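This section describes the prediction task in plain terms. A model, or a person checking by hand, is given the sequence of a single protein chain and must write out its three-dimensional structure as a string of tokens. No templates, partner chains or ligands are provided. The sample shown here is typical of the held-out split.
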Amino acid sequence: MVEDLAHTSTSLSFKNEESALEFKFKGNNCFSNGDNSNALRFYTQALRVAPRDVDVMGKNLVAILYVNRAAVLQKMCLFLESLRDCSRALSICTSYSKAWYRRGKANSSLGNYDDAVRDLNVSLCMEHSLSGKQHIEGELKLILGQNIREDFPPNVNKCKESSVTDQLQGIRLQCVKTEMKGRGMVSLTDIPQATLLHAEEPYAAIISKNCRESHCHFCFSELPADIVPCPSCSMALYCSQLCQIHSGGKDQQFHTKNHGTGFDLSGDLENYVASVIKEIEGVNIKKFAEHKHECGVNWPAALPAEIVLAGRVIVKFIEQNRHSGKTSTIVNLDLCHNYLQLDPESRLELHISSIVLLKCLHYFYGSDIPLNGNTISQCVMLLSQINVNSMAIVLVRSADLVGPPSSAGNHTASTVEQVRAGQAIYLAGSLYNHSCQPNIHTYFLSRTLYIRAIDFVAAGDPLELSYGPQVGQWSCDKRQLSLKEQYAFVCSCTGCSQLNFSDLVINSFRCLNQTCSGVVLDSSVTNYEQEKINPFPCRLPQQVPLELDDVKRVARFLGEETGSNRSIKPGFCLSCGNFCNLEASNAVVKKTEIWIGRLQSLLDSGECLATTLSNALRALDSLKSALHPYNKKVAEAEDYLAQAFCLIGDLQRSRDHCQASIKILEKLYGDDHIVIGNEMVKLASIQLSLGEEHAVEESRSRINSIFSRHYGSHVDAMFPHVRFLKRDI
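The expected answer:
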């Protein structure tokens, strides 16, 4: 079985000439019939499986496919993508006349008329047929005529992406060891809010399995229309040739058959061709090629992502040792692990996974990875380290809810979504401890980790991020369970050790006394909250006064310093003591969740039926009769209704439900949490569609404040899709 995973002879991702030609034929038919989207899909499929050493009618098959796809992209008005495909074809065959012709067309469409004329003149010199030459000459006349009318706009290189820089502030950080949390990071100086503290490239990274067809396997950004497949296997996909080289190495790249064109070109055109080829082939990367050992075998696709990530860590360690003249294969990342806390079954799984992984790597590296007890035990420790130290690379994307068309156009509500695109090890980033109420924020641009202070942090205070669960997201009992299962520790942060408003209300029921704002808790919550109030008074100095006031409003008994009423009993109101039949309340909630769930399913499919919406509205009223007004389920129901009303074009009601949801989330997370910023984007887009100029301005100001706090100058790079908020109404 392991042989099937590790041998290239049994690979399911090998290149296949027959399949490539079949996809090419289908693409040609679709292109002839004007079905550009399917033509694009078939040409891309052909590129994924086309061998790089196959010629068709004297031309390299991969070069032909790139030129064919460039023609489709040109038809779809994706001119920059078309230009890139032409350049990729030329990186394989410099003397490919049609590639120069298509490149000229793309440059012309982009307004790069100087380059377009040169491209077409090169194509004219390389074209053999008389009809082909006449066609190129006709295109040249068109562009030169356009030149006279438009006076040659400046040749702007539109291929380069803008980079965003945010300087580290020179804050002095120190790794310290504490009795409660072990190693952790503190600052030796005061840190202002929004200060960028840390930026780091991953030691090793791997794409999530659910993103393999939609995101770049190196930088994890969403794949463009001109996908670049790995030249040696059909599994890995990239957003650019640069990412492909980063991942697979320079030796996997196509090289031009001849650097000379073999044609009699003028000195100017000869220099132009040389500059184009130099730009295409000028990438010189000496970094570790992380995909090379995985190329053309089955185990990276079959094994879990964290095991494949461990393989990349081991291989990188071996390659680094080779470079320095060492021969050790024992990986020591000096990170904590949870092996001792694992149950026997989980330990057995780690041992089996380690043996399988090392055997797969052994087929590639031979004696560099010996199969013995020492390397297996070290691999087990590595997997255990990855379990508790790897970070999910979460990228931000936008999604628009599009309502029915009107005289003002379609109604849309922009939403901010997060995608777990990858998983990575950051050696320095792993030193930061967890808090359910973090004072630093982590985010990613491509695969680079950034850490920014979201609060003022005094010198000597710990710098703590969230490992996932936060106050406002889950109740204390769920956070503790998640952290214990995944990271093998019991959290003792302020959110888990001190009373806070969010944990009391997030899953609570309402008091039967309609004039009482108290909370009623069930048995799953009471034990965790009870632990926080013994002794409550000694912790008061650490609590924010406003937070304590909020607690007293929903749990008056817990604010009393003496008396027996400070014990929490399931089913009893914490403000007036009334008993609530939780069995009956839960029955109401379960019934309403059926209708809310149906509405959610319709929203996921982009539909919204009037009867389902009407039932969901009644369900919301029933939900409010059983749950506390600040219960998170109420916020979620309000949000679903906001989306539904947007879909049917009732923007006023959509706005009202959106505002109601945000009001609850503010109580759960706090006014300046990033979740509130994301929800405000949705609200602002609805207000924009309604033409509410003053309201949009207020929302825009608040969004900018929250996003700047969490992302600093990276806001535009993180959220390019919300730039619509900056336009005039």
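For orientation: The CA atoms of residues 54 and 243 lie 24 Å apart.
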